[in-house]
Recover the amino acids of this structure.
């Protein structure tokens, strides 16, 4: 008996000590994470101008938001830029990772380091350089397309800022450039964790390299792919600095590349409407929760179906 | 062992700091140092002059925090009601319409010594009055004024068979209609070249020639029925539709290259932009000259220095502002950086009035810009100036890119503005 109680008591105490050890995180999260979120919700019920003061207007900001065509345009742009960046990025990253996973590859560390270099450059410098590349009259992309003979099929002097889809492609290319190496390394890590005997038995069964990639590698990466999808959508919903640097606060003359985060910023910088900006912030949060929920359900269905 | 060493190390470190602190602090107290903080943007504050001021006042250290124009104004909106304000804040003319409404957050410079009104007569009156609140408080002193003139390429004008002497060029366009007509003739002869870098710049030029902008004298919004706004919009749309300009954004990398390659025959340039052209298109030296703007009067931009109410050192800030905006310093800035002075006595100063620049073919820059700023009519600035400017700017860009016809663009701009200011 005595033995029993003495084992129980320290265990409980240990739990409490554990809470104490993790408390700094919750303390800091509370101040810098939770409080600002709650305050944002509070501000969204006001007409709020830091200089002129604020007055309570109930749900007016949200009512305006639902009828605001530019909010919906920002939603559209955000998802369009996400798709145009995420799909090619995933395909390219898988191919690169597959290449790097090759055991015969020389200078492995060198290639992996090179891949990660864009990830450590700042978004701002990437955006500035890419803005130069995508210039309409003298940008390198247009010049390259000209020499590739694309002008013969009617593609020349593309206005990469003024037109909707070209601007999305330009912004997506910045996101891909920066994230590709990081994504490749994540895929590489989980590819290296795939048991080699799976490949051996596949090749014994006569599967080609391509078939091995399709039927062994990809299914084994399912969890990693889901993880990247969730992280990618959350990041995609926050796309901000690339479009801002590329073409200004309003995201183009027809708001053709105004993302949700940029539209929020425009409400603060140009329109001086903090309450409305807060309402957009709340909407982004709700969208993130919904999409994460959908992701979670889809993932559970997939993994449930597998096992 | 290791632990003991570490503790010794810390103890030694801490005592060293206390020791140094004890030795150093009395020395620094003797000089009574003051840190003056400035929030600024662009080239409003010149580091060369800051270094000079430090030599004159060794105890005052100026710490300038530089952002972009919009970011600076945004930071001020947050900061002004709080105590976390700079001692001096630079405000651009397009934001002054907003800040001049908040007299509780900006120091009335009349209350400092010597009072600001004693300085008023020295400055360009409409520019000075931009900084005065409706209720009479003086909220800032203008450091510079934009002015506006037409910088043009002599070589390109010659190729197109146009006159090249400034007087003859100015005579080509006494009105905006004539300016657009000249442009049409130019692009007909010079295929693939633009007459003006960006047609949308015509809008600001015409708007600032009016006696009223987006607000009437009593502060009511008149953006949707002010005939001058409509005229400015129509001139710009006409220039866009006649393909007088390019599709690039001003100050973008593409624009810089075009400047170097002679893609545009003219640029509507405030004085401060001349310095930019010199910096970014150094190879075009001697190929430029400067003509007057259609209608002569013109302004674009201009900055001023203000003191937030909660500033820690208002009197020292005021001493600095008075020095920085005094004739000698403004003259220095004009000669070195081509920012145009707001002190009117300088317009007749030989160093300013007769300033010629070989880059611009010895055009009488001083005279051209002083003529242009002197004939500007004062108009009421208002809270939503920046918002309305940029929304109409978007509409004009849609016309330029052929996304919308002028009428549709105007209608959309008006509804966009109505939605945004509510």
């Amino acid at each position: 008996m005595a033995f029993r109680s003495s084992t129980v008591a320290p265990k409980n105490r240990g739990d409490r000590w554990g809470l104490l050890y993790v408390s700094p995180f919750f303390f800091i999260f509370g101040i810098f994470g939770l409080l600002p979120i709650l305050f944002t919700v509070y501000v969204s019920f006001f007409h709020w101008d830091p200089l002129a003061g604020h007055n309570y207007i109930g749900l007016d900001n949200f009512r305006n938001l639902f009828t605001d065509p530019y909010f919906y345009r920002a939603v559209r742009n955000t998802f369009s830029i996400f798709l145009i960046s995420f799909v090619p990025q995933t395909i390219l990253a898988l191919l690169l990772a597959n290449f790097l996973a090759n055991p015969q590859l020389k200078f492995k560390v060198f290639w992996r380091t090179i891949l990660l270099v864009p990830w450590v450059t700042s978004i701002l410098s990437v955006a500035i350089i890419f803005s130069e590349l995508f210039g309409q009259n003298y940008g390198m992309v247009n010049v390259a397309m000209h020499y590739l003979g694309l002008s013969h099929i009617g593609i020349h002097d593309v206005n990469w800022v003024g037109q909707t889809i070209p601007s999305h492609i330009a912004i997506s290319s910045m996101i891909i450039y920066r994230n590709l190496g990081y994504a490749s390394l994540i895929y590489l890590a989980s590819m290296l964790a795939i048991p080699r005997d799976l490949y051996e038995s596949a090749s014994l069964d006569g599967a080609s390299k391509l078939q091995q990639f399709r039927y062994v590698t990809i299914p084994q990466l399912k969890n990693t792919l889901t993880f990247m999808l969730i992280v990618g959508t959350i990041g995609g919903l926050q796309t901000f600095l690339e479009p801002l640097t590329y073409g200004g606060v309003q995201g183009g003359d027809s708001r053709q590349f105004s993302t949700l985060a940029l539209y929020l910023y425009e409400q603060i910088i140009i329109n001086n409407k903090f309450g409305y900006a807060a309402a957009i912030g709340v909407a982004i949060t709700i969208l993130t929760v919904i999409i994460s929920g959908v992701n979670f359900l889809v993932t559970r269905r997939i993994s449930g179906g597998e096992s | 062992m290791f632990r003991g060493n570490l503790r010794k190390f810390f103890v030694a470190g801490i005592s060293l700091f206390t020791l140094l602190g004890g030795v150093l602090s009395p020395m620094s107290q003797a000089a009574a140092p003051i840190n003056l903080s400035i929030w600024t943007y662009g080239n409003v504050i010149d580091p060369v002059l800051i270094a000079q001021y430090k030599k004159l006042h060794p105890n005052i250290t100026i710490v300038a925090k530089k952002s972009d124009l919009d970011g600076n104004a945004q930071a001020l909106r947050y900061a002004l009601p709080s105590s976390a304000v700079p001692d001096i804040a630079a405000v651009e003319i397009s934001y002054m319409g907003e800040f001049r409404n908040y007299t509780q957050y900006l120091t009335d410079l009349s209350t400092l010594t010597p009072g600001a009104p004693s300085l008023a007569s020295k400055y360009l009156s409409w520019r000075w009055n931009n900084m005065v609140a409706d209720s009479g408080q003086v909220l800032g002193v203008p450091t510079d004024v934009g002015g506006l003139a037409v910088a043009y390429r002599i070589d390109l004008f010659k190729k197109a068979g146009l006159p090249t002497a400034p007087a003859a060029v100015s005579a080509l366009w006494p009105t905006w209609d004539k300016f657009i007509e000249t442009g049409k003739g130019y692009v007909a002869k010079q295929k693939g070249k633009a007459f003006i870098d960006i047609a949308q710049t015509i809008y600001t030029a015409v708007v600032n020639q009016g006696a009223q902008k987006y607000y009437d004298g009593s502060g009511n919004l008149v953006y949707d029925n002010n005939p001058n706004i409509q005229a400015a919009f129509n001139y710009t749309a006409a220039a866009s539709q006649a393909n007088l300009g390019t599709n690039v954004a001003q100050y973008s990398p593409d624009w810089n290259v075009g400047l170097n390659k002679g893609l545009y025959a003219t640029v509507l340039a405030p004085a401060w932009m001349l310095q930019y052209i010199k910096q970014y298109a150094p190879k075009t030296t001697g190929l430029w000259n400067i003509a007057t703007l259609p209608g002569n009067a013109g302004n674009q931009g201009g900055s001023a220095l203000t003191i937030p109410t909660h500033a820690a050192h208002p009197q020292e800030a005021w001493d600095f502002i008075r020095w920085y905006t005094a004739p000698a310093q403004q003259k220095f800035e004009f000669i070195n950086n081509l920012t145009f002075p707001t002190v009117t006595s300088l317009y007749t100063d030989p160093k300013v009035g007769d300033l010629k620049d070989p880059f611009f073919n010895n055009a009488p820059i001083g005279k051209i810009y002083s003529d242009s700023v002197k004939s500007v009519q004062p108009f009421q600035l208002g809270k939503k100036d920046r918002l309305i400017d940029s929304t109409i700017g978007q509409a004009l860009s849609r016309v330029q890119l052929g996304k919308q016809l002028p009428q549709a663009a105007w209608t959309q701009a008006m509804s966009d503005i109505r939605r945004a200011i509510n």
Observations:
- The radius of gyration of chain B is 25 Å.
- Confidence is low (pLDDT under 50) at residues 1-30 of chain B.
